[in-house]
Specification:
The complex is a heterodimer of chains A (about 200) and B (about 260).
Chain A: H1 2-24, H2 26-40, H3 48-54, H4 59-84, H5 87-95, H6 100-111, H7 113-138, H8 144-151, H9 157-188
Helix pairs in contact in A: 1-2, 1-4, 1-7, 4-7, 5-6, 7-8, 7-9, 8-9
Chain B: E1 5-18, E2 21-34, E3 38-42, H1 49-57, E4 64-69, E5 72-73, E6 81-84, H2 96-107, H3 111-124, H4 140-153, E7 158-162, H5 170-187, E8 190-195, H6 198-204, E9 207-211, E10 218-223, H7 235-261
Parallel strand pairs in B: 3-8, 3-9, 6-7, 7-8
Antiparallel strand pairs in B: 1-2, 1-4, 4-5, 9-10
Helix pairs in contact in B: 2-3, 2-4, 3-4, 6-7
The chains are: A mainly alpha (about 200), B alpha/beta (about 260).
Chain lengths: ~200, ~260
């Protein structure tokens, strides 16, 4: 769980700002976009053997894998969120005298939120996938992925199911209770997405 | 002071380049807008009337020529101007009050004072009681009222309106025209209003500027010296409407020809 939090947190910390920069700056977009396009097509788990050699077995490898798992979806969704903010909304702020910081904080950031939240949701799933895969390959100290994998040696099907169950519940909790609550209090209340019926 | 020139466009030309294609939107456009006057620009679609408004706003730059506001050339957007778009462009994450307060907030006005001032304008546009509503819960006409209040709240020198009622149904549109006249009489702002509806133009304007088909130029200027509120069926009103329509018709034909060529 701690590995997940660190990896996912890093994904947010680096992914969202990069997404914003790519959404705002054409030059950066042209520079970074091709690199991302190539990297995004590589399954995260395929990196693990390489990391094992470079970094070795342990938390760092797992965290890095989780980070890669969620990073792209966060970057892309943030970027598209920024680009989806209409010209008029930005113009209206400009004519009212808003400087770049104010436009960013008061217009672009909230305007991009629908897309960012979608990206974060997808990223939860990707991160879990990456975590379990990476733990199976690179963990010596336990973890849910490791637990499922290790259970195989003992034919302990019940433990495998327990592991799957924990992943499902944790995913649900993050999605519904954290992201779902943010969604309800922001974009749903503002009518930027329809309320769930 | 009456008859003081508020805004002056001198030899404004705007050319849009998209790849190899060059589109001359405006060519040698000259215009004077007097202080406290309600000026309406009408013209066939694609004649560059909105482009002109965006240049006044500072969103676009003239390719040649200049636009002076109070004698100073316009170089970028700024709070001495207010704008209302066709789509109201409200911030969905802000309430009605939050939207109207936006400009005051940017100015750095203390919150309580800004709130009080915003409430005045919310009242002026007839939305008292809706200040805490989010835009998505409002009708098209109400949203546009918020747009007007937001543009007026920080007291700009000049109000720019880009077909603000173009997306409303006929009934709402009429009501909004009447409301706008009332609001304008209270504030006496200098207004530049762009529309393609002649009915609307004659109902609202002190001065109607008829533009030519692209490249846009001033075809004719008609003063409307009728008392307000005007009647859509008044004899004088209809006479002026006929004059504007006659001027415009030729240009609309040309504009249609242009479209056919493309």
């Amino acid at each position: 769980m701690y590995r997940f939090a660190v990896g996912y947190g890093l994904g947010i910390l680096i992914g969202i700002p990069l997404g914003f920069l790519m959404g705002t700056s054409k030059h950066l977009y042209r520079l970074v976009s091709p690199i991302l396009s190539i990297l995004i097509s590589i399954p995260t788990i395929a990196w693990v053997p390489l990391f094992l050699i470079i970094i070795g077995i342990g938390d760092e490898t797992i965290i890095l894998t989780i980070f890669l798992g969620c990073f792209f979806s966060i970057v892309y969704s943030t970027m598209y969120g920024v680009r989806s903010v209409s010209k008029e909304l930005i113009w209206a702020a400009k004519i009212m005298g808003a400087n770049k910081t104010a436009i960013f904080l008061k217009v672009v950031l909230p305007g991009a939120l629908v897309s960012i939240i979608t990206g974060l949701r997808l990223a939860v799933g990707y991160s879990w996938r990456a975590l379990v895969g990476a733990e199976m390959l690179a963990s010596i100290t336990g973890g849910i992925g490791y637990m499922i994998y290790a259970a195989r040696a003992f034919n302990a099907i019940n433990r495998m199911f327990a592991g799957l169950f924990i992943i499902a519940v944790a995913g649900l909790l993050i999605d519904q209770f954290i992201l779902g609550t943010i969604e309800k209090k922001t974009i749903e209340k503002w009518g930027m997405v329809r309320r769930r019926e | 002071m009456k008859d003081k020139v508020k805004l002056k466009a001198i030899g404004v030309t705007k050319i849009f380049e998209e790849g190899k294609q060059k589109v001359v939107a405006l060519k040698d456009f000259n215009l004077e807008v007097k202080e406290n006057e309600f000026t309406v620009i009408v013209g066939p679609s694609g004649c560059g009337k909105s482009t002109f408004l965006y240049m006044v706003a500072g969103f676009e730059k003239p390719t040649e020529g200049k636009i002076l506001l109070d004698g100073k050339p316009i170089t970028k957007p700024g709070p001495d101007r207010g704008i209302v778009f066709q789509e109201p462009a409200l911030y969905p994450w802000r309430t009605v009050l939050g939207n109207v307060m936006f400009g005051l907030e940017i100015m750095g006005m203390p919150k309580e004072k800004a709130k009080k001032k915003a409430m005045q304008y919310i009242k002026m546009v007839g939305l008292t009681g809706f200040e805490n509503a989010y835009p998505h819960t409002l009708s098209g006409g109400m949203k546009q009222r918020v747009g007007i209040a937001r543009a007026l709240a920080y007291d700009p020198e000049i109000l720019l309106m880009d077909e603000p009622f173009g997306a409303l149904d006929a009934q709402t549109r009429k009501i909004m025209q009447q409301e706008l006249v009332k609001i304008w009489e209270k504030t006496k702002k200098t207004v530049i209003f762009v529309t393609h509806s002649v009915i609307e133009a004659v109902y609202l304007a002190d001065t109607i500027v008829v533009m030519t088909a692209r490249p846009g130029r001033v075809k004719g200027i008609i003063n409307v010296d009728l008392p307000r509120p005007r009647s859509y069926t008044d004899k004088e009103y209809l006479k002026i409407r006929e004059r504007v329509l006659a001027l415009l018709e030729e240009e609309v034909r040309k504009s249609l020809e242009l479209e056919r060529k493309i």
